[in-house]
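agent> Task received from the user: take the single chain below, predict its 3D structure, and emit structure tokens. No templates, no multimer pairing.
agent> Plan: (1) validate residues, (2) run structure prediction, (3) serialize to tokens, (4) report one or two observations.
agent> Step 1 OK, no nonstandard residues flagged.
tool_call: predict_structure(input=
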Amino acid sequence: MSSSSCSCTPRGRQLLLDALRHQDAPAVPWVPFAGVHAGSLLGHDAQSILTDADKLFSSLLRVNELYDPDGQPVIFDLQLEAEILGCALAWAEKTPPSVATHPLATEKRIPDKLPERHEGRLPIVLDVMARMKDAVGDHTALFGLVCGPLTLASHLRGTELFMDMFDDPDYVHALLRHCAQVAERMADYYIETGMDIIAFVDPLVSQISPHTFGQFLHTPFQQLFATLRERSVTSSLFVCGDATKNVEAMCRVAPDSIFVDENIHLPSAKVITDRYNITIGGNIPLTTTMLLGSQQDNIKWVVDMLDAVEHHNLVLAPGCDMPYDTPLENVVGVVQAVREPERYREMLANYHAPETTYEIALPDYAHLERPLVEVFTLDSNSCAACGYMLVATQRAVTELAGQVDMVEYKATVPENIARMKAMGIANLPCIMINGELAFSSLIPSNRELLALLKAAIDRQSDGIE
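)
tool_result: status=success, residues=465
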């Protein structure tokens, strides 16, 4: 299939901006969140495009050419701000970098530093933003993605932040205020460089309760979005993971739009966002459909979603940053389905995805030598919420010094998806202890997790398990 769309299909920058501003749009806009995946189109690895302006620019132009976007991000890297503020990064070939050190992990203080234009990789990003604005800005809306306050605070403080919420809430409030100032500074730079939409991307929102959101995040986000609204800048709040419980809390901080991933049932969430007149975007499954599915699977997902929801205040997009190895033909299929749903609905009227069977041998949980902790993630290297849940688990397991076994299962592997189905796992990330769900879309404090693991150890030593 070609990626060129029907000449009569309305598309482009204005289509997306109209949808995000709640005006009547003649079609549903399409935004490919192609971060490191952009590099794959020209054979560049993740580190190359995130550190080389020319490679990033040429990769983004290729995305624009192949995927016919109404809008696209210039960079999808939630570690950009953290690196400037002193976090060391660990680089990978096919994912954005992860935070390797947390400068506030052992020192509870509030930084006084805000990012400057010349620091870190910010000059690269601003350069490419300006070049993309000149090259495609007349027909494609450009996103400036900013690391949200909670995720940035987690980068700086590490998993201790989740203990602080109980032990020292005043410190958390102060740290989040500073992280919101960092976010506002980054938004300023991106607006000055011509970005049409500022999106605060905060995946760890999915890992806290509505009460915690209200306690710590309502005011920072409300102020950020109010500032953008005063400047007539279109805004978005982007979350990953199962943030179902927080959809209404996110609406109350009044962004123009909310983008969500596959963990959220979009038709149900749209009932809430419509009540607040907020546009919702998403949420094509990243692994099961985009990475591991066929072109037909991707087309069918889009057509089915367009049939399931009212099109006003709607944007079609991947659930988050597309996996690096997402097949080009799958994204082209999405483009075709978004542009010409009637045609492809008829073509796939009788299509059923083939069943692939994997023989999955689950552990005999009742007769294990030691308790087994299984962490199921989308991909802990690329998903911040997954990464912090894994780190929290690793810390607890390390403290128990060989009394507990641990394994991670990433949903980028088909066999692991089959394992999830066999175990009845519905949302990621999650922690299972001896085959039982312990935490789902909620990063536990060290105390909570240690208490559960010690109880499991005691039960096994007593011969109960």
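agent> Step 4: summary for the user.
The longest strand covers residues 141-147.
agent> Done.
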